[in-house]
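We modelled the chain as a single entity of 91 amino acids. Its sequence is:
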Amino acid sequence: MATATERIPVLVSPAEKSQIANMAKAAGLSVGEFLRQAASAFTPSEDDQILEGMIAQMNKTTTQANEAIDKALRLVAASNKRIAAMERKES
């Protein structure tokens, strides 16, 4: 294992700190080693991956919907101009 030389400041509540310290002690590890091992072992769950995919799809469809709304508003504005021109001619 490479020598640890970098710091990652992490703020936790007093209760979280105590819980982490107790878990590290129970595992026979220092808090730092416990957190390193926990971070190394972490892999997003399948649910997280599905959720990330859903969020990406939602962002894509939201962009498409916004573009469609903008296009519709441009068409309405053009139509309103044509109607106003026709009404001026009738007056």
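As a brief sanity check on the tokenised model: The helical segments are 14-27, 31-41, 46-90. The chain has two domains: 11-42, 44-91.
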